[in-house]
Amino acid sequence: MPEGPSIVILREQAEGFVGRTITHASGNSKTVDVDALPGQKIVALRSWGKHFLIQMPDLALRIHLLMFGSYRINERKDAEPRLSLGFDDGEEFNFYTCSVKQLPPDLDAQYDWRSDVMSDEWDAKLALKKLREQPDMLVCDAALDQDIFSGAGNIFKNEVLFRIRVHPLSTVGALPAAKQRELVKEMQAYAFDFLRWKKASVLKQHWLAHTKSICPRCHIPFHKAHLGKTRRRSFFCTSCQQQYPPALKPARSDSKPRSPRTQPAS
Q: Distance (Å, rounded) from C-alpha 204 to C-alpha 160?
């Protein structure tokens, strides 16, 4: 599933369509009135987390690429698009295997841009407040919560928790205040590292934990598990990533089992 930085790249690649008027539209989407699109001018292209947003005077479109979605600018795949937007000079914008939803045009009334880790309006204090309001939440779930960290995905979760040396089964409320602040800070910092590496086609070369088998700090095997309510894959080191609170260990008994008592002979 594309994460926030990949949607920012999509937005940047499509900037040339801003100000253009759609001349024809088609696709197999059942959630969009394609007949209402011709004649609409693209006012803005925006992104919120994993949502790519096409804003027009009378409506807006929300594109979510899901797990296997893709797009093509001025070219097509050998498949029917979910949505195809055409323009008067023959240029086109095509989306495949994705979710398309029609929205009212006022996106500011529908989205809180302060929650987007890549937005100019990102509010770290608000993210910290939301985080602390859910003390029982596991950090592996908190890192994927789009209401707190819009745009973050599973790569973010694994890489950031490794960076800050926190075990994914830690609870938010058990984290020291400094660790809570560090989590918020690094979630945004990693977003822009991700963006820079993705543009340079070297993202995977910088992964320290995600999909890895050996901890680069401790040189011992990573643990791999599907954790939390999200059940997304976690890669973590039980040596350098501390769990808050510590996991309870089974009680150890040093006493030897008693031998059965024998009855005296009659």
A: 15
